[in-house]
Structures are given as C-alpha cells and as structure tokens.
C-alpha cells in the first residue's frame, strides 16, 4: 500500500469532520448576527474561547516544531484568523444563506487549483478545467437562487481566496496541524481582543446567556478548534488541492442537513446546483489520477 493510499481514508475523515461542523456553523453565524450579536462579538467569542483552549499548546510546544517564522505566522493569522472571520461575519448580513454556504468554499476550491498551478507547477489537466467549470456553475446556481450579487457576495469571494491561500501556506511551511490551529487562535486573540475591547461596538452584555454559551461552544470550540484542526490534518494527509476542494461540498452537505434535520424540501435549482458542485469536486480531486490513466492508455505511453 502506497503512502498516498494509506493517508486517503483518514484524510477524508478529517475533511468530513470539518465540512459538517462548518456547514452547521454558517447557520449559527447567521442566527447570531440576526439576534443581537455583532460581527465583532462573534469574532471575539470565536478566538477568545479558542485561545483559552489552545494556549497550553503554545506554552508547552510553542512553534518549535517546523517553525514558520514571524512573517508566515502573521500571514496565516491574517488569512484564516480574526480578519477572515470578521469578514465572513459581516458578509452573512447581506448574502443569502444558500450563497453563504456556496461562495466561500466554492471560490476556495477553484482558487486552490490556480494557486497550486502557479506555486507548485501542478498541471491544469482537462479534468481539472472541467471541474473548475462545473464547480463555478454550481456555485453560481446557489447564488442566483438568492437574488442578485451584493457586497456580501464579493466579500465571500475574497474570503474564499484567503482560505485557499492559508492552505497553501500551511502546506509550504509544513506546520503540524495542532501547532497551526493554536497559532492562528492565540495569535488572533492577542491581536484582535485588545482592539475589540477598546474600540469596537459590542452587544454581548445584552445577549441572553444561553445564546452566548451556544455561540461560544460552537464557534469557539467546534469551529475554531476542532474544525480548523481537522482541516489542517486533511491538508497534511491529502495535499492542499484536495483539502481545499472538499469543503466546496459544504452547500451540498448543508442542503442535506436541511432536509434531514429541518424537513425542508430543496428547490429544483438547488438540487441541480448541488449535483454540479459534486461533479466538479469529483473532477478536481480525480484530475491527476485521470491524467495518469490517459497517459498510460495513449500510444505514447505504451
């Protein structure tokens, strides 16, 4: 059994863990900003709780294993830390729920392939080109079901590119998953919380305690700690392109959860969009394998 095949199942399992948590978090994030909490409150809850949980990792291990250096560390925090979450929280105020779950991970999957092409010289095979096209069509379908393009849509596209960039830096620095998770959480808390405490609007004091506890547990523990660690592990095991392509299935997973948990019936447009995204991701992931098979079967490869 090759190293790649040994890593495939655990990598997919870690990716699935992150996808299911993030799919649920989008619903709670939208609920949070619609029931009194500001985007600044939600960002503070995320990284305040996550930093408290992960600070022992920094104190015990620091970043001594494969240290990324100060500049890569700050880049990681900027790409997937407080700035990323703040932009995402602000975007959900104007972007419809279906678009929120599609644009961010969908753009990320497409950006990851392009970044890998530029930085790692990975081939842009016909299968991957088709995967990009199908993923883009599916994402567009989810967006169009919610109306026209808003400022929130554009912010979501930007966060998708940021997410893909984060995965590429993680892969390049070879920073272990737990260290990367702790670095982003603690670094974001150190840089963001003082600014939040002094200068940003707050509604935490006016929010019922059960709502605060729910958001703190889900956003601070599950999303920022468990899901980010799971995503980092999937990037270690599967590679940056595969790890950043799989979360584009979030709109499909969210659609399924709405059917199973909420009993909602998806529209025909949503079902078609989900099928397009699924087919696109399959081609993005299978692109190198399909190219190898075609080379073996071509006359030149015999």
Automatic annotation (TrEMBL):
It is found in: Cell membrane. The chain crosses the membrane at residues 12-33, 39-59, 71-92, 98-118, 130-149, 180-200, 212-231, 238-259, 271-294. Keywords: Cell membrane, Membrane, Transmembrane, Transmembrane helix. Gene3D superfamilies: 1.10.3730.20. One of its GO terms (cellular component) is membrane. Its main location: membrane. Residues 10-141, 155-285 form the EamA domain. It is a multi-pass membrane protein. Pfam families: EamA. This is EamA domain-containing protein.
